[in-house]
Every structure is written in C-alpha cells, then in structure tokens.
Amino acid sequence: MNKKKDKGFESPRPFKLTHQVVCINNINFQRKSVIGYVELTIFPTVVNLNRIKLNSKQCRIYRVRVNDLEAPFIYNDPTLEVCHNESKQRNLNYFSSAYTAAVSAVDPDAGNGELVIKVPSELWKQGDDLKVLKVYIEFSLDQPKGGLHFVVPDVEGSMAERGAHVFSFGYQNSTRFWFPCVDSYSELCTWKLEFTVDASMVAVSCGDLVETIYTHDMRKKTFHYVLPIPTAAPNISLAVGPFEILVDPYMHEVTHFCLPQLLPLLKHSMSYLHEIFEFYEEILTCRYPYSCFKTVFVDEAYVQVSSYASMSIFSTNLLHSPMIIDQTPQTRRCLAQALAQQFFGCFISRMSWADEWVLKGISGYIYGLYLKKTFGVNEYRHWIKEELDQIVEYELKMGGVLLHPTFSGGKEKDNPTPHLHFSIKHPHTLSWEYFKMFQCKAHLVMRLIENRISMEFMLQVFNKLLSLASTASSQKYQSHMWSQMLLSTHAFLKSISNVSGKDIGPLIKQWMCRDQSGVVKFFGSFAFNRKRNVLELEIRQDYTSSGTQKYVGPIKVTVQELDGSFNHTLQIEENSLKHDIPCHSKSRRNKKKKIPLMNGEEVDMDLSAMDADSPLLWIRIDPDMSILRKVEFEQADFMWQYQLRYERDVVAQEEAITALEKFPTPASRLALTDILEQEQCFYKVRMQACFCLAKIANSMMSTWQGPPAMKSLFTRMFCCKSCPNIVRTNNFINFQSYFLQKTMPVAMALLRDVQNLCPKDVLNFILDLIKYNDNRKNKFSDNYYRADLIEALTNSLTPAISINNEVRTVDNLNPDVRLILEEITRFLNMEKLLPSFRNTITVSCLRAIRQLQKNGHIPSDPSLFKAYAEYGHFVDVRVSALEALVDYTRVERSSADLQWLLDMVQSDPVHYVRHEILGMLCKNPPFTKSADSGLCNEALVDQLWKLMNSGGTAHDWRLRCDAVNLYYTLFGLTRPSCLPLPELGLVLNLKEKKAVLNPTIKPELGVSVVMDTPASIGIHGVGISYAAVDEEPDPVSLGVCGVGQPPQGLKRKAETPLGSPPEPGQILQHQEDDGRAGRYKIRFNTMEEEDIDMETVHDSQAFIHHQLNLLERPSTPGKEPPLVEQSLLSTPATLPPLFSKETPLLSSKHSSKEKDRDRDRDRDRDNSYAYSNSPASGRSLRSPSLSD
User: Where found, per UniProt (predicted)?
Assistant: First the structure.
C-alpha cells in the first residue's frame, strides 16, 4: 500500500495483543453487579518488557497474574476528578486543558492506560526469547455508572418475568468501563467470550455461539462465543436478558432478539433487513465479513443504534407494527446505518483518531446510496441538502469542523481549533453536537470525492480495502498482517490515486486539512446585457466571518433559457467577481413554442410574467451541491416562480420556496397553490410550500381575497363533497396525501387576521377535523395525524389580552381558548386509557399546555410537567415534559426548577434523558453570559463545576462534554462574573503586562519574582520539573501522575525543557504548618524527605518561573499522592524487594470507591489515605487492593 503500511502498523505499545478471553461468571440483577476475569495473550515487542499498561475504569481489580505469577499493579484514573480540590480556577480554558491532559494520560493510542502492571522480574530473564505472556486479571463491577446499563423494572415477579436486562453501551473507546482491555481501535485480536447467566436469560455477544452449557442444577447456563476475526476491544459488546429470539426467515445466519411480548413487532420491523444486506453486498461486490449478524433491541438505549462486531444494539422504540407509517422509514434508515458500520467501523477499524473521518465518511456514503435506491433520488437529494444546511449553520455559528486534526503540515498543533471551547484531539473531549456535525461533514466530503473520481472508482476503492482486510483477517497468529484491517487517511488516499489515477490532494486540503476549515459563502446577482446577448453574473464571497473559507476553483452554473437548459463551468479566481456567460436564445415575444427542461421534458409555459427583453427563465449556482457552501442568489420573483413550477430538481424547488417568502404577491400565492395541487411533486416540497403559503398569506393580510389559504384546497382533497366541513373517513393508503393531510392544518393554524389572531373559521375548521376524525375503516394508525391536529391547535394560540391584571380562571377564559383546552384535556385523558404509539398525543398535549401557559391563558405551573418527567414514563413523554420545564425555568427565572433539573442530570437512571436535559439547557439556556441574571450565582457555578469535574459525569464521556457545553453557554470561557475575585497568589501588573507574586501573601520570600503567566493561577500542588537525577523516568509513576510517558530510552537532562512532565514522585508542597516561612518541602523518589530552604536554592527565580509555566498546561491530572509519612504507616517492616532504586513510592488516591464516592467526597478531600497492604494486592505497597 504505502511505505508506512509495508512495515506494518507502528504500535505505541511495547507488546502485541493476539488473543483475549473474557469470562463473566456472575451477573446479579438485584445488586447490579458483575464478576469475572479476563486473560490477555501478549507478545512482547521489546526485550525486558517490565510494565504492561491496560485500560480499566470503575472495575475493582482483585488480583493480577502474569504467566501464573502474582504481579503487583497500580490503578489510577485521572479522569475521575479533572482539576483538584485546591483549584478555585473555575474557568473553562483551564478545565479544558486539564481534561485533555487527563484523557491523554490514559489514552491507549499513546500507549497509556489506567492499570499499570509490573511484570515479575523472573519473566524478564526469559524476555530475550520474546516469549508469550498471559495476563490474567480478576475483576468485579458494582452498580456501574457507565459501560454497562442495567434495566430492572420495579414490578412483581422474577427477573425474567420483569423483563430485566443489561447491555453494554458507550461512546468511542468505552469497553474499559466493563472489563480490562486495550481500549483502542487499533489493537486487534481474536476473542473468546463466556457469559454465565440464569437459565431464563439469554446472553448475546460478538462472534459465533459455539455452545451453551447448563450447570448441574440446571439453574444457570454458560454461553460460549468465539470471534475468530481480529477485532478491537471497543467493538465488543454484550446484552443479557429474557430475550425472545427470531431467526430471520430470509437469511438464517441473522438472528433478532427483543424483549418479551414484542415478537410480532420484531417480525414486521425486521422483515426488510435481508434487502439491505443484498444491496450492500452488491454495490461493494463483497460478502458480509462476519459469519453471523445479531440485532438486539433494548430499553433505555444510550443511542438509537450502536454497532459492534457482528451485532448491533438498537433502541426498542424503533420496533413498530404494520399500522404505523411515520416510524417505518426511520427504522429502516437505522438498520441501514447499522449495517453500513459493520463493514466500515467494525470489520475495518481505524489506525488513529485522526482517521475516524474515513470510516464515518464511507459508512455514511454507502448508507446514502442505499437511501437513493430505496427511497428514491428525490429523498436522497433532499437528505443531502438537509445535511449540507446543518453543517453550514453549525460552522457559521461555531467555526469550522476539522476532519483530520493532525494532518496540517505533519506537526500536531497544540490547538488546531482555537475557536472551540473543547479540544478535538480526542473523541472523549468533543461536544456531542460537534461529533454529529463531524460525521455529517465526513460523508459530504466523501460525496465530493465521488464527484471528482466517479462512483464506479469510489466503489472499486471500497472493494479493494475490504478484500485486503478480508485476506488479512484470515491469517492466523500472523498478527503483523492484521494491520491491513486498519484504515488510515494516508492508505485511503493512496488507494484512491491507485484506482482512479486522479490526484485529489487539493480537494482534501480544501475541505479537511485547513486550520480554518469552514464553509464557502457565495452571494450572487446578475444583469442581462441585451446588446451583446450576454448574462453578466457576479459572484462574491464572504470569507472573513467565522466558519467560512475562501474558495478558488471551478463552480457549475445552470441557466434555464427559452431554448433549453445550459450548464456552464466558471473558474473562481482569487479576485475575479464578474463572469460573462453567452446566451443561446434570443428573447421571443409572441411565438408559442414548448420549452425544453433539464430532464428532456418539454413544457408549455405562460411567459407573460417574464422580462420581454431577456431569454432567461432562472439561474442556479452549484446545482449539484459539489461545494460545501451557502448560496444567496438574487433574481426576480417571476424567476423563482418559474423555478418552483418547472425545475424538476427538489433542491431547486426547496430553494425557490425559501426565496418566495420575501415576495408576498398573488403570483407567488398561485405558484405555491399549484405546487400543492400537483401530485407528481415530491411530498416534502409540498409540505414546505404549506408553511411558505401561510407566511405569504400573513404578509398579504389586507389584500387577501377568498377563503383562508389552503382551506378550500384541503376541503377539495379530503372532505365530503356534500358537506365540506366534515372530513372523509381516513384512508392513508396514499402516503403522499397522508403527509399533506397532516401538514396542512398545522400550517393553516399559523394564519393571522388584522388583529393578529387566528381567524375564527380556521380554528373552527381544525376543531371540526378533530371532531369528525374517523379511523375505523383505515388499515393504518392515525396517532401521528391526531398529534399534528393538536399541534395545529397549539399554533393557533396567540398571547392573551388581560384587563387590569385580572387573575385567569377557567370561568373567564376566552371561549376559543376554552374549546382548545377542553380538546387537549380530553386527548390527555383518552391517552391514559388507550395509549398511542410512542405516546405521540401526550407529547403534543404537553407542548400545547406549555404554550397556553406562555401565552398567559392559564397560570404558569411546572408541577404537571414534573409529574410527566419522572422516571417510569415513556422516554418521548419525559423529554417533552423536560423541554417544557427548561422553557419554564428560563421564562420564570426559577432557581428551584433549575436545581430540580440539575439534580435529575445527576440522578436519573436513563443516560439518554440526562444527556437530553443538558442539551435542552444549552439550546434554551436560563440565562447567557452576556445577560445579568439572578440565577447566576456562586452555588450554581460550583454545582456545574463539580458536575463536569468529578460529579456524575466521570463515567459517561458524552455527559461530561454536555456539562462543559452548558458551562460554556452560561459563563463563557473565562471565570464566571458572579464569582468573587480569588485570593490571588499572583497579581497582574498591567503596565508591564506581567504577573508578579502578590507581596501581601508571601512577603518573606525575599526575592521579587516576575513571570509571564495567567494571573489567576495559584501555586499549589505542582510537579517540579527540574531534576538533578539523570535517569530514565519511571513509567509507572508517570502513569500515576497522569503524564504522558516520554519515549523509551530518552534520558532526562538536569535542565529539563519547560512544561515537561515532572520527575516521578516529585511534588511541591508548601509547608503551611511550619513556622519558618518560605520553606518548601520537595519529595523525591527516595524514601527520605529533604527540606530545602527556598532562599538557598540556586536560581530560585528560574525555579518558580518553571512552576508557573507548568501550570499553564497542567501536566499532572492524577490526584496528588498522599504524603510519604502516611504511606509509611502502612508499610511492612521490611520493604519487599520489588522496590528498585527507580521506583517511586506512590499510591493513587483513586480507588474504585465509586459507590461511596458521592458520600465520601467531602471527607476524602482533606485526608488522603493510603491503601491497606492486603494480600490480594500482590503483597506490596505498589499494588493497592481495590477492594478496600
């Protein structure tokens, strides 16, 4: 492939993992606990491998053995608490750099890990033979907060009868949460998975089920799975529950699992899956890579779709019966996404985080091809336009999305995206919104590559990548071959140039690797020069505002003239604005002749509206969306109307509808009405036209003739001939008219009369639709239609007019509003007796009630929403109620309800709901950084800081990033304004632009020290980085301090460069209790302590300067180790021989005290504790037992 590939993948680890056994022999649903062991087979790649770093979070480790010898270990997780207690920083810049450092300190892609195992010295001697090592680890999990999710319904009966189940979940590298592993997408190995569960339960995992063995008493059974295809740990998953099992009738190697009583829904929802398989296998000309595929539907899912090797876990809410229309396309889309990720994402993995875009891009691209085949070209182009609009909106608001963070110039920049409040170097520091936009942009860039090299070549490239990986996967034990299953950007681009012979370098540079990677913003206008018969087109760009970039290159312009449609390719140069395009037709005044369109169709047009001198009907810039751009084009209203009526591309029609909102004229009204009546027109265009028509009608209020917009049309299409105000019995057999019937009333309710109220006849019309709605003869459910009718009632509401502040009661309600309220109450009560699919009606009713409150018709009261938001209701209902509560909090500025929401974020059992609350608070914040608010106070800052620093978010990356987003929305990047000034250890001297030590705090230092540092930094707890010890740093202690380890064999000089990690175990501590001021205690690796008088230290100025430089990039995210005196208390009389000279005496304060963590945090804050010297710990101080 390429030079790098020939040598094989360069692993950051000093060993190669070839096989891993995971055995979970007890899953307890009552206690929500798991007990098991793992065994990793490792080939050392260096002589004398003395330390093995693995990933493990929240697992309690009981013992570690390497080749049957007890091995000491250290466990430290710096991400449990990012910034330490003494920090009163409270600014996001500080947090963000500390969090990035903490994540990097245990990042498996850098060869790090939370669990550091010391290989027993007996095994070093044999290291020359590079003998295989077997690492055996016993562990348990108790009430996991991440990685595994237990769903135990609180009802009567046994666990199986209650439908209790557990499944693994997580976002990017989250397998470490439920068993120790190398949690990296680039470390592949084969797997053996064993799960012992109750006889009534089923365990579903990756690979082939080899056998199921019952215990002697027949009360338990063990499922044995084998996965012979090399797979990365993050792609391993597990689901255990009393699942009902369905073997796919079309493909026997596919099995579906669902919770009890949902089998009929499962049969219907999965009846289509085999067609998706056939489609992908056909376009990729490659068999599905695994020998089986399993779909598992679980409750309280983390995301709708998670893909793992040979299995996918879905939300049970995707299942539906044949009566449901709206859910069907969404479920099929989810299945198609999951299958696309089986090929690219699970089977082919990525080399590093910087290559993630390739996998997301390819799986998104082939999913798009599936959409095009199944739902048609219109749906596909509509989807591309939606995705493009989303990325444009996000990048213009937040700044560019960088697909390949380390590509620029080979050197990794410290911060390639200064405009963001989080680091993009690691998936775990990304905001969820950014990650979604990242995936969206990745597949759009793939589409740009397809435009450049053609679809045929594109599919050949994918086939080549899959066949190489497939060959590599069948190689047994030749693990150097397995790197062919890892995809890198370099290999992908190389493959493209080999297959197509085209150089796509400039395209990649433009859209992926620019530091200012953003979208292009075009403004276009034109003039027609009649004398020369030339169209003078002017295209300007805005590349100065945030999230934009300058585009130089070709752009396609389509001009529809009287004699046909013509494509022109213009070259956008550095400074050229005007382009002359020769016209092919002369203007014709009276000649009647059909006009040829782009698709070869010829149509009659009424040309009376157009300019008599010009042959131009309409102009489009970049019609194929082959640039990531936003176009604002100016043309006359009649040109937009022609474009809407006669252009056959849905994207052009949607652009025309958006543009016509600015032209409220009878001609626009007519064009929109024509589109609504035209059955051949794409249904989503007709739905958009409804809302545009309502806007135009409101702008033309005074001149509008005839009945309200869309009413006569709706009557003609859906009502009885004899009695026009009674709607016909429902018949949704034609889906196009079904979607139109749902949308029209919602749009009509937005109409307003001269008093800015909803016209009386419109409201009565909607109430009649509800009254006469009859679904008895319909084979489809009407729950989405009824939900939309409630939404129509909601849209008809306008603010209440109150006279002398009278109190609102039911008696003095406006009669129209009273009717609306009665309907909503009736619907809510009916819903309790006969719930609709996904409770769509309750969701609409809750929104309506909030709207009634906001408009002052009924008193604002959050108690109803709180009741519906409680755990136990259906998730959509909860989210809808929470949305209303978030809005209530903002409008009423209620601190009690904000507190209620934040408590729910910490305590709610459903991860998705916690994520949604924070997301909604970001979208609709109770206050913002620019406005003063009574809600902004020190307690709130502390609570949010705790939440993202150490609270409930340490075991859910997504939630922690959500909390960071909320903190940013409320307070910005700097220290929140409501906080008092900290007692500064430093003072900012504005004249000299320097920070100096505050003389009032440390007068006795005797030296005036001047430093260039941020003023808000205190001087506690910093690792010292000048060292007189010239020896190789010890990786274990560096792991504990949470610092990236320097490359092996690198000697540290006495003058260490600034900002480097501290020498192992060296901690600067100010001795406050000591009477002698200015004395610092420096702890070295050795057992004894040395007191160093600061005044006698050589060059103390440089020394402190160094400290503060270190603080700018916090290099020790791990907690400060306890004092040596305390450690000594628990030291045995004779120290074990394990301590060689270079080993520091460190013990980490992070234990697996997750259970008692919240209770004990305040107590722990003051007294660091050392581990007891328990026998399970390998009998040494160095390997704390985690079962304390």
Answer: Nucleus
**What whole-number distance in Å separates Cα of residue 416 and Cα of residue 423?**
9
pLDDT score of 583: 92
Pairing of strands 208-214, 220-232: antiparallel
Q: Within its chain, how far is the Cα of 825 from the centroid?
A: 37
Looking at residue 513, what DSSP letter applies?
A: I
Extract the tokens encoding 258. Answer: 């669902």
Cβ within 8 Å of residue 1046, ≥6 positions away: 1033, 1052, 1060, 1061
Tens of pLDDT along 65-94?
Answer: 999 999 999 999 999 999 886 567 788 988
* Annotated domain spans of the chain: 10-77+114-242, 359-409+417-512
Check the CA dihedral 836-838-840-846 and report its sign.
positive
Per-residue confidence (pLDDT) for residue 546, from 0 to 100: 85
Separation CA 561–CA 641 (nearest Å): 15
Cα–Cα distance measured from residue 298 to residue 175, given in angstroms and rounded to the nearest whole number: 18
Give every strand in the sheet of 616-621, ordered side by side: 564-572, 553-561, 616-621
pLDDT at 9: 63
Query: What residues in the chain have per-residue pLDDT under 70?
Result: 1-9, 85-87, 125-130, 406-416, 477-479, 514-516, 575-576, 588-592, 803-805, 982-1188
User: Which class in CATH covers the domain with range 359-409+417-512?
Assistant: mainly alpha
Query: What is the C-alpha separation between 1143 and 116, in angstroms, rounded?
Result: 13
CB 1001 within 8 A of CB 129: no
Q: Which residues of 807-837 are buried (b: 16+ CB within 10 A; e: fewer)?
A: ebeeeebeebbeebbebbeebbeebeeeebb
- Look-up of token digits 């297959």: 499
Alpha-helical segments (H) within 758-814: 760-771, 783-795
Q: Side-chain half-sphere of 870: how many Cα atoms within 13 Å? A: 7
Q: Are 84 and 1021 in contact (CB under 8 A)?
A: yes
pLDDT given for residue 1161 in this prediction: 45
Q: Which residue type occupies 1099?
A: D
Strand partners, 555: 570
- Selected from 2.60.40.1730, 3.40.50.1240, 2.40.50.100, 2.60.120.260, the CATH number assigned to the domain covering 10-77+114-242 reads 2.60.40.1730
Task: State how far the Cα of 521 lies from the Cα of 392, in Å rounded to an integer.
Answer: 9
pLDDT at 991: 56
As a whole number of angstroms, the distance between CA 517 and CA 525 comes to 26
Q: What is the pLDDT of residue 404?
A: 85
Spatial distance between the Cα atoms of 952 and 909, rounded to a whole number of angstroms: 11
Q: Name the nearest CA neighbour of 618 among 642, 593, 600, 598.
A: 642
pLDDT in tens, 1056-1073: 333 433 333 333 334 344
Q: Which two tokens stand for residue 399?
A: 């700044």
Structure tokens that stand for 388 in this block: 């493009």
First to last CA, the chain: 52
- Alpha-carbon span 1101 to 1103, nearest angstrom: 5
Q: Are 82 and 950 in contact (CB under 8 A)?
A: yes
State the DSSP string of 703-752.
Answer: T--SSSTTHHHHHHHHB-SS-TTSBPPP--SSHHHHHHHHHHHHHHTT--
Burial class, 568, CB count within 10 angstroms (exposed 0-12 / middle 13-18 / buried 19+): middle
Handedness of CA 730, 734, 735, 738 (dihedral sign): negative
Sign of CA dihedral 284, 289, 292, 298: negative
Tokens 């070295």 locate to 1084
3-state secondary structure 83-97: CCCCCCCCCHHHHHH
Rounded Cα distance, 626 and 555, in Å: 8
